[in-house]
Amino acid sequence: MSEDEFEIDLDDLERRMDGALAALKQEFSSLRTGRASAAMVEPINVDAYGSMTPLNQVGTVNVPEPRMVTINVWDKSLVAKVEKAIMESGLGINPQTNGTIVMLPIPELNEERRRELTKVAAQYAENARVAVRNVRRDGMDQLKKAKNDGMSEDDHKIWHDEVQELTDAHIAKVDAALENKQQEIMQV
Predict the structure, then answer these.
(1) Any idea what DSSP says for residue 31?
(2) Is 55 within 8 Å of 71 (Cβ atoms)?
(3) Do 120 and 181 lie in a common domain?
(4) What is the pLDDT of residues 97-117, one digit of tens each?
(5) Which of 60, 68, 85, 123 could bridge to 72 as Cys pair (CB 3.0-4.6 Å)?
(6) Which UniProt keywords apply (predicted)?
(7) Measured distance CA(12)–CA(17) in Å, rounded
(8) How many domains is the chain partitioned into structurally?
(9) Could you tell me the sign of the dihedral formed by the alpha carbons of 85, 88, 91, 97, in that order?
């Protein structure tokens, strides 16, 4: 048997681990840090025209100043529904309306809320680590199968080390992202 038959698709494993990192960054962007961010409202859906529609598809989301997010709703009949969706989203922000513009003033976070948010961020990071480890496990299962099919001990060791290096690098990226997010949350 040729060596090529036993190659493990490291690119696929890396792509899947990168996906876990991208999902983590998406979750982090939805966490409030006391600074305004358009990403805060990305997960919010509005009941528009009989279906749930992402908020950014019913209006323009802007961040005119560090502690304010505005949504310029395109259809005046949807303003009340946008307000309702924001209040029910769990952001903890009360919207203010001025015509078709919905304003979200971002209040200062108190110490207790900051600590809660760092715990939520840590949970998101742990979920990302688990996802990376699951991809690693898939890679190790491929290696085990290849070894049973006749892969040499040396090749098995080389591939094992490659998969482990990839895993360690992605876990380190998750930890760094968590550290940055926790510093951002705790910054007053």
Answers:
(1) S
(2) yes
(3) yes
(4) 999 899 988 877 788 878 888
(5) 60
(6) Cytoplasm, Protein biosynthesis
(7) 9
(8) 2
(9) positive
